[in-house]
Design brief:
It is built from ten helices and ten strands. By secondary structure, it is of the alpha/beta class. It has a domain of 135 residues: Rossmann fold (3-Layer(aba) Sandwich).
């Protein structure tokens, strides 16, 4: 297999005396959707935060295209094209849909904003209908679409999403996952944390299972869907 686009090697991260990640090894290759499964408190969000340099690594390495990402800042990580769409959306409620999208592209040439916004509207036609509406007045599903759209404005070379379906109705969840597949097929690799394990594994090329800060299992998405252990722990079977 080719060199990973992103690789975590023996990553240790903690908060004070509490060690949260205990030697995580994980990799993502170009064109992939990779999902990270685990219960609450397993360390999934901390993994994404450590990649984005929001939390400091205690030990281990984050490599991007084979080169070590030294201790950095989130904006420097973003400049590589590594983009995080966080849990709870964090849109700007008093700004319009279009203003939220423009903020997502702040690192890039503003002259390209229109083309990028139109691409987001191709994925999410509902946002175009709401383009002048304040973000805080959108439904939960529309706010999630806006959060993903804002992430796309940063022209991601890797898109990381933390619980994109959380709190959404089943029909909206289906729509979100359809869009994630389209985004991936356009050439954007995706690292996905998702409490809806069945949906995540259906679209994932590969998956990792995390328990108390350690990767305990990894396989193809289809094989993990068939795993008795995964089905009992995460699919309610």
């Amino acid at each position: 297999m080719s060199m990973p686009l992103l690789e975590l090697r023996d990553l240790h991260v903690g908060y004070g005396a509490a060690e949260v990640l205990k030697g995580v090894n994980l990799e993502i290759h170009s064109g992939e959707i990779v999902t990270l499964l685990g219960g609450n408190g397993a360390g999934k969000t901390t993994t994404l935060s450590s990649i984005m340099a929001v939390v400091k690594r205690q030990k281990g390495q984050v490599l991007w295209q084979g080169k070590v990402l030294e201790e950095s800042t989130p904006d420097r990580v973003l400049s590589h094209g590594i983009v995080l769409c966080p849990e709870a959306r964090h849109i700007f409620p008093l700004m319009s849909v279009e203003e939220n999208l423009k903020i997502g592209g702040y690192l890039h040439d503003a002259r390209n904003d229109l083309a990028k916004i139109e691409q987001v509207y191709d994925y999410f036609p509902k946002l175009e209908e709401r383009r002048k509406q304040l973000g805080g007045t959108l439904s939960g599903g529309e706010q999630q679409m806006l959060a993903i759209g804002r992430s796309l404005m940063s022209e991601p070379r890797l898109l990381m999403l933390d619980e994109p379906s959380l709190g959404l109705a089943p029909l909206i969840v289906e729509k979100i996952f359809e869009i994630l597949l389209k985004i991936n097929r356009s050439g954007v690799p995706i690292l996905l944390i998702e409490q809806n394990a069945r949906q995540a594994l259906k679209i994932a090329h590969r998956g990792y299972v995390m328990v108390t800060g350690k990767i305990v299992h990894s396989d193809s998405g289809s094989n993990l869907l068939k795993s008795d252990e995964v089905r009992r722990a995460y699919l309610g079977e």
